Amino acid sequence: MSVKAFELVLAVERELLMGDKPRINIECIECCGKNIYIGTNDCFLHHFLLEEKSSSKGNPAFAAQKQLQRHLGLKKPVNELKAASALNRLIVLCDNTIMVVNMLNLEPVPSGAKIKGVVTFTVNENPVNGDPFCVEIGVISVKKRTIQIYMVYEDRVQIVKELSTPEQPSAIGLDGYFLCLALTTQYIILNYNTGASQDLFPYDSEERKPIVKRIGREEFLLAAPGGLGMFATAAGISQRAPVRWSENVIGAAVCFPYVVALDEGFITVHSMLDQQLKQTLSFRDGHILQDFEGKVVLTTTKAVYVLVPLPLERQIQDLLASHRVEEALVLAEGARRNIPKDKFQVMYRRILQQAGFIQFGRLQFSEAKEHFRKGHLDVRELISLYPLLLPTTSTFTRSHPPLHEFADLNHLTQGDQKKILKCKRFLISYLSEIRSTEVANGYRDDVDTALLKLYAEANHESLLDLLVSENACVLMDSVPWLEKHKKFFALGLLYHYNGQDDAAVQLWMQIVNGELHDDTRADLYEYIVDFLTFSSKQDLIWKYADWALQKNEKVGVQIFTKRPEDEEKKGKLNPDNVIKYLHKYSQAIILYLEHLVFEKNIQKEKFHSHLAALYLDRVLQLHSQSETPSEELSSSRTKLQNLLQKSNLYRVQLLLGKIKDTDLKFECAILYGKLEEYDKALHILVHQLKDFQAAERYCLWASEDKDPSYRQRLFHMLLALYMDPSISNDALVMAAVDLLNRHAEVFDAVRVLRLVPESWSVQLLCPFLSGAIRESMHSKRMSQVALGLARSENIIHKHEKMKSKGGPIFLSEKKGCQLCHNTFSEPEFVFHPSGIPIHTHCAAKRNRESPSRRQYPNVNNHT
Amino acid sequence: AKMKKPDVKLVILGDMNVGKTSLLHRYIERKFKDTISTVGGAFFLKQWGPYNISIWDTAGREQFHGLGSMYCRGAAAVILTYDVTNWQSLVELEQRFLSLTDTANSDCIFAIVGNKADLTNLKAAAAETGEERESNGNLAGAQFPASPKMHKQVQPEDAVALYHRILRYKMLEEKCSPPAEAMCFETSAKTGYNVDLLFERVFDMVVPGILKKKTEAMSNTVDLEDCSDMQRTKLGCCG
Q1: Residue A272 with chain B: CB contacts under 8 Å
Q2: Which of A199, A275, A334 is closest, CB to CB, to B42?
Q3: A275 and A305 share a domain?
Q4: Chain A partners of B58 at a C-beta cutoff of 8 Å?
């Protein structure tokens, strides 16, 4: 599980530091820009300049240049070094004393500022005090259980705070007001401003050296029991999962996204993103590991090394090259903050695409799809893996450098047909998903054509859906492919979509005729008829209608009879032309005329007569063919009779002429009926057909929607026929009795009774008689009711009239005229609109006096 | 270094080998696989509706016990896990782990979970889908038991009793806390029995806390609009 995240490069070699003196060891180190300061156990300070340069192979290398070395005047080792570059000072701990020296000449500051009694110290890199000309340091004092905070200025130091701790501290970190301390038995966070303390977790500092390493704002990295590297915030919580070190870690540093740790034999690199160990470098006699401004520096006791991080992109590419997709993505994701947004986006998308192809290669399709989607993959990259899918017109070339290592699908699957099939199924689902999204924008031609090819090859049912809906399949490329896979029906759809209906129908015709084989649709013939029915191209219809009709007249004629309703707008077929055209198809023409007459309800004599004549011909033809009545014949006759009865438009005389001499008596009767020659009609029915029921029905039909006397006349006519004294037989008599009894209410009873022979019993005519009486009673009562109703209506009207006239006016000698106040002596008066009577002369006078103010314009005379 | 900041923290505690990592793995990855003893701790971010919930999987080993209270600091929910076939694992919860939760939020929610229910409960064993059984077949014997394989040592009542003692220990009102029946579970990370139920119920219970925290944060913000309104009315009074 290794990544090459860092490269270990020698920076300062032993020769430069101590030559071959064996007892001299490096004690501490500080880096500041290109400056490296090294403290040794013989109380020397060394200053180097470090230039980074690349070797001939492009590997990083350093050249150190010795600047200066100075003895600090003691016999103790230099324990710790910190640069305060803003002050141009180095803070040096030696012999429990902090002294401040000039960064350039390494001379102690003239003021001789010192802090005595220091075990160890740390610089606050996130001080609350914002003064740029001082450095805040936290110090573990030699005094028992004491921490001190100092300000270090250019040439003086100042104590800010002294705190006591519950146990002896041994390591210190500082950020803001927060001290992170390793005590004897535990780590704590101590706020030096408020004094509040927060336990972190137990740790035996005497058993193992504690590590407190500030790694960012208010966050520390701590050595924890069991060889863990624990993260803790100033609030005392852990926001990242711990990393697992060895038990004997000497130092640790963070170089995002990695935690680097040093033990006796190795440098370990863990990712903070997934806590996994990513790299292990062998490093013997390791002594110090520290990071300075993002640069990780290590030393043995004799030499200095730099751990140079490899560019993130290269790390990611290495991971991808070894197919470690998840790790690569985590690493890329983690780098988001450290890379400019637009640059990151380009890089990240490419990584996602590469990741997708790796997963695709493993046939992990759902993961691959997700990455293709997130990475905004040009879908043609994927299509181009499949041989022959991209149309020849496509301008696509694969991106360079390539996103994957595959030449094509055969290479990827090593020819495994099962795998190829799986890949194809995936592409089908992927393309069908994205084809209507913006992913396909700009190259819909390529996508749809590829999809068409896949569908055709896989015998996929969605092929037809694709072709009947909006699509961008390239015709030139698709035609040979569909032909190759014998998808002729689909090809027809494609022709149709591209406006080549003629080619489409031609092709389908060939399938129906058996010249081509494609069993996509068993009902292709009906489909073609339907297609022509809904086609608005007249020339196409005329061209193929013959073929359709020859195949099957009944179905073929639908081209004309089932045309869409909204055709009117686009210019419809002229029925006369159609009729002329259909002349040679005896069945079709009848169906078409039926369509016009019954469905379209076209009221034109021409069509009705034509249809009637055709019906008649048909009946006559069938009639002549066989003596015994067939079902076909009877149904044809019913149709004919139906038309003759229902329609009033056909030319009766013409048909009558044809029918008269045949034995289509009933039809003949209907025609006579149409001419109102009922006696002839009834004669046929009664005497020739002897069908009394039909005669009765005939009377009812013929008098439909006519007034009752018309019906009465017909029934009397029929009765007269039955009772014709010249031809008397029992059947007719019985028919007459039945007729009377059944339709008593229709007849004029008085006239009937005169006709009825004396010999008939009352019993025989009982139903008729009671019916007739009932009818006459009924009509009498109905007229009484009507009379009553009319009277009451009259009264209502009278009442209304009275009401609008007003009540009576009483006039007597005692009443006076309101104008002259004299009494009335004559019966004449004028009725004032306000309801009072006045003298006629008073009214006239008043009108004369004030002609302009005629107050009573409507004077009514009441008497 | 995760991009999303967690809104709320949930901690799984319990003795080693009770199946804390497996429970979490089953919930997140929908799979059961052999896990190695957790070192230190691990955490996952779970998107729950609009919220990010961080779930800490702690190490049960004694060695890492000291880290527990730090993990629990600020936790909104603690899942105390034991092994239904191991009485001691329940005892340890009270003796060793309960005190770690002192650093959790004062309104922290507790769930008590008896894992490995598949070993004693036929229903829990049968929860496994056919497909999973096939893939897990070589891990733990393809036949699922006709009778429970192991003796059950912890009864649900024991867990309920512990739950009540925890409430007393935390000085939480019974009335104000979720009822014991809702917070004591028997699960099987191996078959997935009750695992989703457990996590989802706990998630649902911590959401009101997130909302409360958010509205509190909102009310601390000064609303300039409101302020100007107030001023205007004051002026009206004086003028």
Answers
A1: 1
A2: A275
A3: yes
A4: none
Distance from CA of A122 to the nearest CA of B (A): 24
Contacts of B67 in chain A (CB under 8 A): 201, 224-225, 228, 230, 238, 242
**Residue A742 and residue A843 share a domain:** no
Residue-wise pLDDT for A15-69, tens only, equals 888 777 888 999 999 999 899 999 999 999 999 999 988 776 777 888 899 999 9
**In degrees rounded to 5, what are phi and psi of residue A704?**
-60, 140
Contacts of B40 in chain A (CB under 8 A): 224, 226, 228, 230, 241-244
In this structure, what token pair is assigned to residue A99?
Answer: 């002294």
In a domain, A414, yes or no: no
What are A153's two structure tokens? 């200025």
- Eight-class DSSP state of A331: H
B43, B45, B67, B96: best mutation site toward chain A, by most A Cβ within 10 Å? Answer: B67
Nearest to A300 by CA among A280, A283, A319: A283
Closest Cα in chain A to B104: A237
Of B7, B39, B52, B58, which to mutate for an interface test with A (greatest number of A Cβ within 10 Å)? B39
Q: Are residues A764 and A718 in the same domain?
A: yes
Q: Residue A251 — φ and ψ, nearest 5°? A: -150, 160
Say what the ipTM of the complex is: 0.81
Pair A719, A828 in one domain: no
Q: A-chain residues within 8 Å CB-CB of B43? A: 240-241
Within-domain flag for A726: yes
**Has residue A763 been placed in a domain?**
yes
Report chain A residues whose CB lies below 8 A from the CB of B61: 226
- Sorting pLDDT into bands at 50, 70 and 90, what band is B238? very low
* pLDDT averaged over every residue in chain A: 84
DSSP 8-state symbol, A537:
-
Shortest distance between the Cα of B81 and any Cα of chain A, in A, equals: 20
Domain identity same for A787 and A833: no
**Alpha carbons A819 and A837: distance in angstroms, whole number:** 10
Short-list B68, B5, B10, B77, CA closest to B38: B68
pLDDT at A641: 78
A693 with A764, same domain? yes
Rg for chain B, CA atoms, rounded? 22
Cβ contacts from A onto B, under 8 A: 67
Its domain, for residue A830, covers 811-849
Element (H, E) at A659: helix A652-659
Confidence class of residue A830 from pLDDT cuts 50, 70 and 90?
confident
pLDDT tens-digit readout, A202-246: 999 998 899 999 998 899 999 998 889 999 999 998 888 899 998
Same domain? A687 vs A762: yes
Write the residue in A225, A235, A244 that is nearest to B66 by C-beta. Answer: A225
Number of domains in chain A: 3
Domain's final residue, options A294, A309, A324: A309
Q: Is residue A3 part of a domain?
A: no
- Domains contained in chain B, CATH given: 8-127+153-217 (3.40.50.300)
Q: Where are the beta strands (DSSP E) in A205-287?
A: 212-216, 219-224, 228-233, 243-244, 251-255, 258-262, 266-271, 277-282
A598 DSSP assignment: I
Compare B203 and A746 and report the one with higher pLDDT: B203
